[in-house]
Structures are given as C-alpha cells and as structure tokens.
C-alpha cells in the first residue's frame, strides 16, 4: 500500500492524478499485484470508487467478505449527496484533463498487463464485475464513471484482440511456410513451437473474447440507452472506435444497428456521436462493401438529419453524406437536392458543409479529355464548363438574390474555381467557340452577379451579412492573399471593365453589378501599371451610362463608383474629380434651364418637359447622395419646384418625391460641413432658415392626395426632426444649439394622423389603394415592410422624446389588434419609453386604454355588454400591458401607483345624470384597471384602496347590483392581501414555493418586517397632483432562497432508454422474453427490429415511451473472425462477479 503508485490515487486530491506518469504508475501497480494481488486490486477498486466522487473507502474486510452488490450499496450510502457534481461533470480545464487522464490510465493499464496478468482469471474478472455492478447503479456518478471506464476497458481489449489476431495470422503464415518446405529442410521442432504458439494465442483470444462479451452484455447493451445523454454518447463513441479499429470482428449488422437506432435519439449530443462514428467508417473506402446494407436501411434518416434542429448535428450529417458520395449511385437525385439547397442556409458551418457536398457532386469530376487543356486559360480552360455549371445551378435554385451566400458556401472548397476571373471575363467578352452554346441573357446576368460576389468575398475577406458574427482579425497570410487578390482583380478588370460596360451599357441589371467592381480595386495600380488610358475609358463609359439611364439603382451605382475613384490619397484623384465636376456642371445647368421653362407662368407643362426635368433631377439626386454638391446651390431651384407644386397642386408625384429627397441631401450636406469645420453665425442662420422652410414644405405635402408623396414627406420629416432634435448637441457640439428644432403640436398631430391612416390599416385596404397593384404574396410582404419602416420612424421620435410621449397612446392601443404585424416594434417602444420615464409611460398606457374605452362608448353607448368581444379585448390588452411591467415590483412601484390613480379618476370622472344611486358613466373601466392590481405591493394596495374610497359614497359601498360589479371586483382585487403588512416582493430572484432547507443551512435568526404605511404617508400620496413620487416606505431587502438543490435521484420510471434497478430480481417484465444464444447475432435489416423512437426533426415535444415495454432482442456474443474451436467460460469467480449483472436475458429491444 506504500508503493509509489498509491500516492496518485485520488483519495486526497483527485487533480493530482493529471500530473503523473501513467507508465511508471502502472509498472509500480503491477509489481504490487505480483506481491499481493488482493491489496493491489483493493487499491484499484478504491480508485474507481473515488473517481466517481464518492468519499467512501472499500476496506480489506469488505473486499474479502462482501458481494459486489453489497459493497456498492454501502458506497451509495456514504456518497456525498450535498451536490450533484462529480469529477466527470465538473467544469474547468483541469477537470477536463482529469477525464482524459482517467481514460488514458485504463488504456495504459491494459496495455502493460496484456501479456500475462489479464489472463489470470482474477484481475480482469474483478474489475469487470465491479464496473458492471457500478454501471447498474441508480447513482448517476457511479453509473457514468463506471460506464466510461468499462467502455475504455473494452476499447483497450479490442486493441489487444487485434494484436492477437495479427500475431495469429503471422504465426499461421510461418507455420504454413515451414510445413511446405521439403522434408529434408523442414524443422520439426520449429513446427511444434509454432503450433504451441498458435495454441497459446488461440487460448488468449478466447479469454479476451469472453471478457469483451462480459462487458458488452453487462454494460453496453444496457447503457447505450441510459437515461443520461452523456452515458449514451460514451457508448456510441466507443462502439464506433471498435468497428473502425477491428472491422473484421465488429463491422457487421449486429453492431451497426445500435448506431442506426441511436440516430433517432432526442439529444443532439448522442446523434452527433453516431454521425462522427459513421464518418470514421465511411472515410475508409475499403469498408464500403460492409456498409451497403446499413446505408440502404438508414440513408433516409441520415438525409433527414441535414435539417436537424442542432446545427452541429446537421453539419456532421452533411459531411457524412459527402463521404457516402464515394459509393456510386447510393444517393438519389432527390437526396442530393435536399442537401443542395442548404448552401443558402444562414448558418455558415451548415452552408459550407453543403457547399463541399455540392462541389464534390457536381464540380470535382473532370473529364479525361480535359487533361490535355489544363494549361489553357480563359474560355478554353477546364474551369469554363465548371463556371457554366455553377451558373446553371444558381439559376435552377431560383434564389437569384442570394448569389453571395452560394459563393460563400463554396469559398473554402472551390477557391480556384471561384477566383478564375479571367475565365469568367472571357465567357462574357469572347465569342463562343465552334459548336459551343452561347450564354443566354439570363445566364450572363447570373454570371456577372456571381463574379461580383466572388470579387467582393476576395477583397473583403468576410462572409456576407447574416453569415458571420462580425469582422475578424485577418492573419498575416490572409492579408497577403487579400492584397494579391486585389492586385489581380485590378489588373484584369481595369482593362476589361470598360469593355464590359460598353457591351452591356443598355442592360440596367448588368451595368449596376459591373459598376460595383471599382470599389474593390487597388487604385494605385492605375498609376504604377500605366493604366491611365483605361481609367479614361472607364470614366467615359460611366458618363455615357449616366446619360442613357434614369433607373435609380444604375445612377446610384455610378455615383458610388465616382466616390470610390475620387480618393485624394491617389494620384488619379484630379483626373476623376475633373470628370465628375464636368458631369455635375452639365447636369446642374441643364436642370436650371429645364426648370425655368417648366415653371413659366401661364403655360401648361407637357409630358416631355416633365420627363426631362424628372430624369435630370433623378441624376442630380443620385449624385448628391454620395457627393457634396453645395457649390451648385441646388436648394433654391428645388424650393421653387416644391413651392410651385404646393400652390398649383398639379406637380407630377415623381418630381415632388425626388425634389424632396434632393433638398433633404442639401440640408444634410450643409449640416455635415458646419459640423466638421468652423462655421460662421451666418452659415448657422442660413441652415436654420432652410431647414425650417423645408420642414414646412414637408408638412404641407403630408396632406397631398398622392400616397407616395405623403410617405416620402413623412419619412424625410421624421429624419429631419430626429437629426435636428436636442440630440444634435451631444458630444460637445453646443454651438449647434440654434439648429435645434422641436415640432409644434400641429405637426405632431399630423404625423400621428399619418401613422393611423397609413400604417394601422387592413392589408386589403392597402392593396386596393396601391394603384391597382397585383394582390400577390410578394406585394403584401413589400407593403408590410414599408409600413413597418414608417411606424419605426415615428416610434423613434417617441423614444428620443422628439414628440410628446402621450402621442404613443394611439400606438400602444393597437398592440393586440396588429400584434402579428407590429407587435415587436410596439413592445420595444414600450420598453424604451419605460426606461426614459416610468411614470409617464404608465400614464400613456392607461391613456391608451381610456381612449379605447371611450371609442367603445361612442359606438355602443353606456349600456354595453361587459362580456362583449370589444370590452374583453380591452381587458386582454390591459392584461398584456400588465405583463410588460415584469416581476420586480419595487422598480415599477411609482408607475403602477400612478396608473391606478389615473384610472380611478377616469372611472369617477363622469357622474351619472340620473343621480348618485346610479353608477358613474365610466365605472366599468375599473374592471379593466383591476388587471393591474396584482402589480401593486401589498401596502400600496391599501393606499390605493384609501384613494378609491375618496371617490365612493357610503351608498356605493352597499350596492350589489350587476352594474356595480366593476367597483366590487376592483375593491376585492385591492383588498386581497392588502391587510398583511409583509411585503410580497419578487426582485431579482422569484420567491420559492418550497420552504425546505438543507440540513447544513442555518435558519435565519429573524426576519425584518416592513411597517405599515403611516397616515401621513397616506395623506401625502392622496393629495398629490399629476406628478406623483414614491410613497414614503422603507426599502425592502431582496429576498433570497436558502433552499439547497437536492441531488437528482434517478428513478427507473424517469428512464428514457431504460435504467435498470439495483436489484434485478424486483424487475417486473411486461412480457415473457426469450434469450436466443445465436452466434450469428441478429441482422439489423429486418423491418421489425428498429425501435420506435421519435424523429427529432418531426417534433421535440413529449417523452419517448420506455423502449423496454413490448420489445425483445437477442444479445449476440462477440465472435472474433480468425479464432476457431471456441471454448466458453461457464462462470466467473462468484466472489467478485455477480452473474445477475451480466444478464442472460437482456431487456427487450425489438418490437414483438
């Protein structure tokens, strides 16, 4: 016991175990075993017991005289039940290292003992007996630790069996070679020696087989369907290792079926282990023939797992199917299509795995005749056909707005293909070869879009929006690749882009994509590569495109291209700036000239003049978005245009819309100029005047007959009011105070009216007013998106206190009616306003309920039915409002009190004209107000009740008629718990329902009670006016629970896949089960053998029925292929191996 190895056993400090040399420790233990095997085994038993987290120690007396089941029962009684944690589940890198060290120790132990000790029928019998008994324990720590140990022990034994098989094969080969020699040269003594060696190896292999059978039957067949997912995962992970390591013995249907069945497990962790185990098998192409039946049976399940709710599982399922592609014609076209569409997944690992599958299936196979043209480039390169295939796939997928996602999915596996821009450029510019099909217009558009996405990905080095958590820091190698790619892009497209623009100049879609390319150029190359003439050609093409097109997307693309090229850091700036200035000069002169003719008095403008003005205005507006055009003084001419439109009322809507937008840009550029540089007082006053005048113009256009004009005016007004609010002075910009603009009540009212008229409408009404727009799903979604943006713009004004908070009442009251469309926006607005001012927010909420109540009165009169849907809807809205206040009553105390105060005043505001014997006209509102009573603290309920009594007469308190029910129910809601002076506070941690305390936790010596409200504080609260502050009350400490979490005990009825009770004789089987001792094992290909387990993809709700019921299965014996003339071990030593723990009648599995 004093041997060196003993010091590392975890009797005092488990973590010391991770810092030792297992080789020397095991060697010392072997020496001790040879000296006294009982003492050495006792140390090993205590090692396993204490690695489970048990503080008990098995004594020599217990070891000699007690059965395993009795020892385990004794250890269970001494287990520390104060915590559910044990070494294998503890967090932290050291405990993770402990787990790997524990597994490594078992492997070293078997490896060092494989030549003698494991065959003595004592050491292994004892260890297997102990681990089997522990794995049957209802204590999770014992079961988990022993299962891990048993599975690692089995893995080590499989390795020993494999070595024995190899040695037997070598011995047999040597024997055959010696025996085939002629008699004169044959050595009989060597033949006899080889026969003896083969016999010893055979006996050893029989021993190993029996040990593995004991572990497999006693541990694996029960624990692979344990209630704990970690235990099931261990079993599946290890059986995968066995099948991969010793495929001749384990890679057959009898073992594969366990993996196939467990792919239906409800826990993603277990399903993931199944897939990784199968990947190790499918990776070896030589094993494919043994997997054919398994593949045909479980292929559909694997395909369905590509849509697993756990992304990690879905990724591994796709990777497994990629390996399955090695087998020809296994996956059908439908199977492949189920994976193809995942390249558009928002989850990048899933998309990348699907991209690799797609590439392997469609792009990785090269025709033999392509080998002769590997060195060809451009249109004749082998990538040409692959690029076409990519275009065809993109078009067939019918997700044309997601080319960036397709490119990103294939970026890691098909980089060379996606970066072959020379080939793509050749396909677009060069004429098709003899017999080659030319690209259609649609295919050319798709190719340009894909080419743009590949260039963007190479230049920016990050996934598209929605595929990443943000820009990551690039490594030095990635930065070099990025610079090389940008150089390659610039050198190629600086020359090719003008040609491409010239070819497709009239196609708006193609030109828009092509014009984005210069954003990713290295502009220095224009100078260093002497490419100025190509720059001039590019500028000429952009100018021509501006003159030809009036499409907003094309014009904005031209504007952004000029902005990208006009970089003062590069020498090409002057050249580009001159070209830009010349273009703007011409546009501004043309606009002023056209406008003068267009606005001449007494003449009716014709359509051609209007078109010329509109097209020029569109171009100027698009350029003003990205460029400062202040020196062209565009405010004056736009003001004239808008002013004339207001006076005459016949201005074309598109001209008004773009004039408003252009003027908006003028204001913003002037503000940016003033903010960035020192400005004079005159500049501030001029901007202030222009901004105020512009806001008045927008306000006039809010009443325009055209919906599009009103929406544009509303959107711009919201932006201007937000920008020029008090927020403009933040960040030390006090000099901008003269620019602060607060909307008056009339403007606020008009903005709110716009929202009510154009946002809170039925979908059908909107479609009917949309100028005959086709009523289809796409148009509905687009219209809803537009309305959501309008509502969000107004709610932003509320949140930033640009408009009065009480205007939100008209928004909040729509919460239930339009929950599906705008619920998230309205709820977020509530949350933000509550953070700004809790009391004012509460007053706004109650105001919205009052407005709804008044609307109901106007519609139905005062004698309405309180069970009507309208009234019930208001009550439900009040309940929803109450839920938004959360659980912390202390934080919302003042707000809830003020809400009740306003509600009570509203209820008694209108006395009944028939006299005091009749209820006030708004008394039914108390029924709605009672929804908020639960949010009051108990002492505040008394205070509110006292305030309520101020409005009640003595006769009211005696009334019991139905019309007085709202008052009665509201009073009862305030009286409930109101007499108790102990506060009911839920703050931070909700109060526990149970009062059970852990025996080690000291009870509290006393509790602090909050005194009742004094009469003075009551009067203070009752006499408050509209602004109310917190009643004078003592602060209540947060309540914390003293309940210690009891250790989770595992019960057989909680089992998900069968956990066996500690005493098998008490187990009542529902049916009679028969054990078939069949060497063949059982085939997994019979239809009645797969357990009925819920498909995770279909539903994750409910519990799977215990698979033990009504099922039967055969437990096979492990039969190693090379060995012959097996001998069965009839029994293990009874003192150390409980036969009941290795069940001759295993629990049922197959449906009967």
Automatic annotation (TrEMBL):
<keyword id="KW-0175">Coiled coil</keyword>
<dbReference type="InterPro" id="IPR016024">
    <property type="entry name" value="ARM-type_fold"/>
</dbReference>
<dbReference type="GO" id="GO:0005634">
    <property type="term" value="C:nucleus"/>
</dbReference>
<keyword id="KW-0131">Cell cycle</keyword>
<dbReference type="InterPro" id="IPR039662">
    <property type="entry name" value="Cohesin_Scc3/SA"/>
</dbReference>
<dbReference type="GO" id="GO:0008278">
    <property type="term" value="C:cohesin complex"/>
</dbReference>
<feature type="region of interest" description="Disordered">
    <location>
        <begin position="1113"/>
        <end position="1133"/>
    </location>
</feature>
<feature type="coiled-coil region">
    <location>
        <begin position="161"/>
        <end position="214"/>
    </location>
</feature>
<keyword id="KW-0159">Chromosome partition</keyword>
<comment type="function">
    <text>Component of cohesin complex, a complex required for the cohesion of sister chromatids after DNA replication. The cohesin complex apparently forms a large proteinaceous ring within which sister chromatids can be trapped. At anaphase, the complex is cleaved and dissociates from chromatin, allowing sister chromatids to segregate.</text>
</comment>
<feature type="region of interest" description="Disordered">
    <location>
        <begin position="987"/>
        <end position="1019"/>
    </location>
</feature>
<dbReference type="Pfam" id="PF24571">
    <property type="entry name" value="HEAT_SCC3-SA"/>
</dbReference>
<feature type="compositionally biased region" description="Basic residues">
    <location>
        <begin position="997"/>
        <end position="1008"/>
    </location>
</feature>
<dbReference type="GO" id="GO:0003682">
    <property type="term" value="F:chromatin binding"/>
</dbReference>
<dbReference type="InterPro" id="IPR056396">
    <property type="entry name" value="HEAT_SCC3-SA"/>
</dbReference>
<protein>
    <recommendedName>
        <fullName>Cohesin subunit SA</fullName>
    </recommendedName>
</protein>
<dbReference type="InterPro" id="IPR013721">
    <property type="entry name" value="STAG"/>
</dbReference>
<dbReference type="Pfam" id="PF21581">
    <property type="entry name" value="SCD"/>
</dbReference>
<feature type="domain" description="SCD">
    <location>
        <begin position="220"/>
        <end position="305"/>
    </location>
</feature>
<comment type="similarity">
    <text>Belongs to the SCC3 family.</text>
</comment>
<keyword id="KW-0539">Nucleus</keyword>
<dbReference type="GO" id="GO:0000775">
    <property type="term" value="C:chromosome, centromeric region"/>
</dbReference>
<dbReference type="GO" id="GO:0000785">
    <property type="term" value="C:chromatin"/>
</dbReference>
<dbReference type="InterPro" id="IPR020839">
    <property type="entry name" value="SCD"/>
</dbReference>
<keyword id="KW-0158">Chromosome</keyword>
<dbReference type="GO" id="GO:0007059">
    <property type="term" value="P:chromosome segregation"/>
</dbReference>
<keyword id="KW-0132">Cell division</keyword>
<comment type="subunit">
    <text>Part of the cohesin complex which is composed of a heterodimer between a SMC1 protein (SMC1A or SMC1B) and SMC3, which are attached via their hinge domain, and RAD21 which link them at their heads, and one STAG protein.</text>
</comment>
<dbReference type="GO" id="GO:0051301">
    <property type="term" value="P:cell division"/>
</dbReference>
<feature type="compositionally biased region" description="Polar residues">
    <location>
        <begin position="987"/>
        <end position="996"/>
    </location>
</feature>
<dbReference type="Pfam" id="PF08514">
    <property type="entry name" value="STAG"/>
</dbReference>
<dbReference type="GO" id="GO:0007062">
    <property type="term" value="P:sister chromatid cohesion"/>
</dbReference>
């Amino acid at each position: 016991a004093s041997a060196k190895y003993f010091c590392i056993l975890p009797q005092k400090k488990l973590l010391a175990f991770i810092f030792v040399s297992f080789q020397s420790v095991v060697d010392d233990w072997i020496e001790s075993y040879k000296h006294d095997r009982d003492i050495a085994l006792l140390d090993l038993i205590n090692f396993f017991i204490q690695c489970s987290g048990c503080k008990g120690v098995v004594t020599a007396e217990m070891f000699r005289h007690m059965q395993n089941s009795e020892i385990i029962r004794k250890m269970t009684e001494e287990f520390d039940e104060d915590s559910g944690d044990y070494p294998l589940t503890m967090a932290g890198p050291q405990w993770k290292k402990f787990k790997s060290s524990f597994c490594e120790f078992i492997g070293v132990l078997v490896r060092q003992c494989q030549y003698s000790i494991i065959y003595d029928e004592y050491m292994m019998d004892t260890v297997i007996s102990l681990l089997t008994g522990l794995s049957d324990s209802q204590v999770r720590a014992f079961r988990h630790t022993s299962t891990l140990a048993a599975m690692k022990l089995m893995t080590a034994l499989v390795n020993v069996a494999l070595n024995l098989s190899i040695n037997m094969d070598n011995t047999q080969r040597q024997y055959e070679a010696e025996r085939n020699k002629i008699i004169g040269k044959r050595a009989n003594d060597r033949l006899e020696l080889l026969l003896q060696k083969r016999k010893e190896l055979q006996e050893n292999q029989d021993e190993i087989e029996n040990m593995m059978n004991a572990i497999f039957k006693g541990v694996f067949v029960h624990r692979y369907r344990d209630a704990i997912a970690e235990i099931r995962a261990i079993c599946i992970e290890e059986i995968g290792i066995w099948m991969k390591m010793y495929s001749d013995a384990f890679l057959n249907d009898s073992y594969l079926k366990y993996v196939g069945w467990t792919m239906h497990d409800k826990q993603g962790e277990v399903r993931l282990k199944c897939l990784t185990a199968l990947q190790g098998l499918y990776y070896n192409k030589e094993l494919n023939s043994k997997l054919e039946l398994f593949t045909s049976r479980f292929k559909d399940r694997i395909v369905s797992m590509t849509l697993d709710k756990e992304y990690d599982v879905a990724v591994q399922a796709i990777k497994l199917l990629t390996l399955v592609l090695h087998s020809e014609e296994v996956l059908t076209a439908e199977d492949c299509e189920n994976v193809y569409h995942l390249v558009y997944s928002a989850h990048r690992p899933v998309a990348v795995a699907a991209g690799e599958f797609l590439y392997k299936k469609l792009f990785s196979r090269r025709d033999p005749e392509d080998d002769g043209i590997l060195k060809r480039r451009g249109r004749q390169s082998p990538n040409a056909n692959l690029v076409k295939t990519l275009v065809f796939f993109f078009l067939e997928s019918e997700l044309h707005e997601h080319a960036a996602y397709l490119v990103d999915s294939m970026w890691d596996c098909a980089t060379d293909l996606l970066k072959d821009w020379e080939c793509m450029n050749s396909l677009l510019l060069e004429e098709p070869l003899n017999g080659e099909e030319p690209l259609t217009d649609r295919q050319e558009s798709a190719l340009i879009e894909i080419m743009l996405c590949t260039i963007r990905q190479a230049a920016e080095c990050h996934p598209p929006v929605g595929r990443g958590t943000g820009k990551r820091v690039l490594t030095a190698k990635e930065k070099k690749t990025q610079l090389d790619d940008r150089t390659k892009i610039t050198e190629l497209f600086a020359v090719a882009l003008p040609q491409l623009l010239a070819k497709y100049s009239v196609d708006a879609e193609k030109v828009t994509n092509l014009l984005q390319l210069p954003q990713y150029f290295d502009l220095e190359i224009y100078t260093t590569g002497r490419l100025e003439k190509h720059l001039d050609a590019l500028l000429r093409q952009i100018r021509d495109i501006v003159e030809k097109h009036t499409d907003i997307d094309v014009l904005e693309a031209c504007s952004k291209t000029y902005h990208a090229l006009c970089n003062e850091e590069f020498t090409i700036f002057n050249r580009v700036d001159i070209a830009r200035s010349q273009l703007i000069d011409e546009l501004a002169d043309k606009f002023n000239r056209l406008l003068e003719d267009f606005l001449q008095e007494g003449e009716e403008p014709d359509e051609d003049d209007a078109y010329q003005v509109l097209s020029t205005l569109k171009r100027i507006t698009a350029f003003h978005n990205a460029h400062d055009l202040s020196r062209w003084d565009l405010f004056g001419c736009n003001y004239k245009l808008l002013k004339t439109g207001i006076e005459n009322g016949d201005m074309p809507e598109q001209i008004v819309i773009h004039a408003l937008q252009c003027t908006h840009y003028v204001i913003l550029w002037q503000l940016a100029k003033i903010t960035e540089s020192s400005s004079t007082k005159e500049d501030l006053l001029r901007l202030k005047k222009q901004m105020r005048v512009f806001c008045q113009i927008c306000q006039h256009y809010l009443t325009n007959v055209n919906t599009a004009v009103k929406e544009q005016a509303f959107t711009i007004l919201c932006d201007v009011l937000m920008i020029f609010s008090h927020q403009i002075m933040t960040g030390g910009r006090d000099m901008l105070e003269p620019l602060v603009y607060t909307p008056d009540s009339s403007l606020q009212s008009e903005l709110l009216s716009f929202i009510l008229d154009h946002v809170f409408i039925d979908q059908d009404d909107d479609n009917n007013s949309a100028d005959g727009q086709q009523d289809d799903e796409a148009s509905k979604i687009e219209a809803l998106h537009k309305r959501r943006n309008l509502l969000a713009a107004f709610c932003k004004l509320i949140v930033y206190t640009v408009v009065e908070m009480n205007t939100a009442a008209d928004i909040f009251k729509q919460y239930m009616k339009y929950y599906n469309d705008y619920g998230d926006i309205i709820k977020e607005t509530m949350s933000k306003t509550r953070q700004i001012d809790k009391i004012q927010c509460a007053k706004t909420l109650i105001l919205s309920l009052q407005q709804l109540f008044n609307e109901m009165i106007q519609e139905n009169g005062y004698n309405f039915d309180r069970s009507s849907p309208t009234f019930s809807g208001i009550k439900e809205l009040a309940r929803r409002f109450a839920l938004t206040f959360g659980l912390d009553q202390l934080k919302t105390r003042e707000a809830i009190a003020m809400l009740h105060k306003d509600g009570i005043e509203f209820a008694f505001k209108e006395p009944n004209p028939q006299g005091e014997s009749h209820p006030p006209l708004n008394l039914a509102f108390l029924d709605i107000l009672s929804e908020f009573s639960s949010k009051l603290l108990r002492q505040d309920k008394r205070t509110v009740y006292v305030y309520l009594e101020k409005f009640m007469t003595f006769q009211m308190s005696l009334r019991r008629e139905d019309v007085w029910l709202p008052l009665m129910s509201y009073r009862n809601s305030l009286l409930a718990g109101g007499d108790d002076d102990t506060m009911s506070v839920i703050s931070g941690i909700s109060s526990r329902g149970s009062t059970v305390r852990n025996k080690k936790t000291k009870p509290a010596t006393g509790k602090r009670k909050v005194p009742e409200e004094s009469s003075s504080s009551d009067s203070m609260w009752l006499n408050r006016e509209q602004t109310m502050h917190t009643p004078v009350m003592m602060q209540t400490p947060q309540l914390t629970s003293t309940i210690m979490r009891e250790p989770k005990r595992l019960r057989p009825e909680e089992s998900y896949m069968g956990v066996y009770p500690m005493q098998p004789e008490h187990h009542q089987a529902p049916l009679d089960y028969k054990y078939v001792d069949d060497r063949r094992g059982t085939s997994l290909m019979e239809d009645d053998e797969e357990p009925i387990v819920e498909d995770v993809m279909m539903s994750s709700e409910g519990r799977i029925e215990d698979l033990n019921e009504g099922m039967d299965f055969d437990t096979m014996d492990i039969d190693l292929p090379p060995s012959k003339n097996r001998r069965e071990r009839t029994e293990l030593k009874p003192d150390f191996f409980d036969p009941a723990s290795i069940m001759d009648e295993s629990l049922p599995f197959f449906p009967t």
